[in-house]
Design brief:
The chain has 223 residues and is of the alpha/beta class. The protein has helices spanning 10-22, 36-43, 59-68, 84-92, 105-120, 153-164, 172-180, 190-202; strands at 2-6, 26-30, 47-51, 74-79, 97-100, 127-130, 133-136, 141-144, 147-149, 211-214, 218-221. Helix content is 40%, strand content 22%. Strand 10 (211-214) and strand 11 (218-221) form a beta hairpin. The longest helix is centred in the middle third of the chain and has 16 residues, at 105-120. It is elongated. Residues 2-116 form the Response regulatory domain. The modification 4-aspartylphosphate is found at residue 51. This is Response regulator transcription factor.
Length: 223
């Protein structure tokens, strides 16, 4: 598999190139997005590892340009901006995956392997399902009983966390850390406020309730 790395940090780029070559991948390293379309026509990568913060053209804009030109290579964005809002921006720009910095090389490898498997298997989407509630992790869109739900980035982040481990109870502190990246709640009840908003959207219109409160413990999502 051929991997194009677009990374302006010399140390990170060199590390990625050497590490991926050691794993048997054919790699090419660029330090910016300049001239990338000329490179694509010659190198024809299967996967593009794209830094979010690039000189001249940032990674999000470059990702959008690649997709507008019908570039079919899988795109993995690397970024120090790893909050849910930023991940949603990257995925909506056309990226197939988004990994925050700093990262473990083993996780990067696993994600690249997953992208390769998805490419080989066609356009199979990553999707979480609990009862009739579905969350598409590629497009970050949710549906219940076939109806599209209008959710904010934070609501999508909460939903992804709870659906990834259906039935597992998450404390308010754990949700705050995973979705907001905070260890303390500056507004004291922000998690409860968002849970109430999410419940109105995914549960109130439907007879079967999926979002449950465990008093003194936190929240879980299950049928």
């Amino acid at each position: 598999m051929k991997i194009l790395i677009v990374e302006d940090d010399e140390k990170v780029g060199s590390f990625l190139s050497r590490g991926l070559k050691a794993e048997g991948y054919l790699t090419l390293l660029l330090d910016s997005g300049a001239g990338i379309f000329d490179v694509l026509s010659q190198f024809e990568p299967d996967v593009i590892v794209l830094d979010r913060m690039l000189p001249q053209t940032d990674g999000i804009t470059l990702c959008q340009q690649l997709r507008s030109q019908k570039v079919s290579a899988r795109i993995l964005i690397l970024s120090a901006l790893s909050e849910v809002d930023e991940r949603v921006k990257g995925l909506r720009a056309g990226a197939d995956d988004y990994l925050g910095k700093p990262f473990h090389f083993e996780e990067l490898l696993a994600r690249i392997e997953a992208l390769g498997n998805r490419m080989a298997a066609g356009e199979r989407t990553r999707q979480l399902t609990v009862a009739d509630l579905q969350l598409n992790l590629d497009s970050m869109t949710a549906q219940r009983a076939g109806t599209t739900l209008t959710l904010t980035a934070k609501e999508l982040g909460i939903l992804e966390l709870l659906m990834s481990n259906s039935g597992k109870v998450y404390s308010r502190e754990r949700i705050l850390t995973n979705v907001w990246g905070l260890n303390e709640d500056p507004l004291t009840n922000i998690v409860d406020v968002y849970m109430a908003r999410l419940r109105k959207k995914i549960d109130d219109p439907y007879p079967i309730k999926l979002l449950h409160t465990r008093r003194g413990l936190g929240y879980c999502l299950q049928e």
